[in-house]
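Handout, section 4.2: multi-component inputs.
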Amino acid sequence: MFHDVDSGPAPSPLKRADWMALLARAPMHMLEHALGAQAEAEVNWLRAPEIGLLMVQGRAGGTGERFNLGEVTITRCALRLAGIAQADAAVGVAYVLGRSRRHARLAALADALLQAPENQPALDARLLAPVRRHLATQRAQRHARAQGTKVEFFTVARESGNGNDDEADA
Amino acid sequence: MNTMDLSTLGAGFSDESRGSQAVFRAALQALSHPGRPIEVVHDAEVPRQGHAASAAVLLALLDADSRLWVSPALAAGDAPAWLRFHTGCAIVDDPREAQFAWIAQGPAELPPLQAFAQGSLSYPDTSTTCVIDVQALDAGAAWTLTGPGIADSTALAPRGLPPDFHAQWHTNHAAFPCGVDVLLASARHLAGLPRTTRIDLSVKA
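Output:
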């Protein structure tokens, strides 16, 4: 199932899968900037950040047979915000590419905060919208770069000159 | 992949390697000195159902390649989800396929020991390791234990096992080198019953 999260307007209401997909690819400086002081909020680790390998699977053209593309390094963690009764505290989960524990922590923190509906509008404006724009720009640039190397294959209609040589010989 | 409800789960060991090593040491001690209650010290936020000592020892022993069977009372609670989240183990429905089993306290929770994987003569190590929750390790009818790891004989008085446990254990012991190993767990202590240990109901003077 291919789900395009980069393009298109923000879905309303926000869905957790959508913002988690954004947070997983949000550059760290944007997370730091948007979370501000909340980035240093105290957390209770449900699973402290850990680094591991994940097998990425792909489908040719998005629809073909599944195949193993290769392994990537990821960092994952799960946390609860401290200072809230455990029953009420949402669990923030993050899986990010790379080996930055801080990156995973910030993404999980944002996920936990976004699960409280009262935080959503502010965080959407401060964090998700810029990330969405950033990813769209990145995608457009990559697309443009790829376009520069594109080879158009087309068939030139053959001018009829001295008649159909091949067939005449045969 | 199934989504798991994480909202009720507690954290594992605060320091994963040291925490699990300390608990592993306790399990090792318990199995090398059968019948001696060993205290399990840990800081994991264990599930509500089942004893803390058994939860901690399973948290330390299980990994993504292990198959766990849990008794009905535990299966209904958040214990399977907790262990699956922290260790990645697989939960199986058939005790015969399990490498580890966690049995809650209660009359109908423990299936016959022979229902678990017994191992084969070529691979006796493939039998199930059973962690059985009991009310107490020192408040029941006294057993006299003998066997490897016990200098002369030692006493253990678990309370909360089925009345025919002794008969089952006799069969288990007779099947050596096959048979299951058992860890009896009270709230904070573990006592090991490896398959080599003999239980006598008579108390030696």
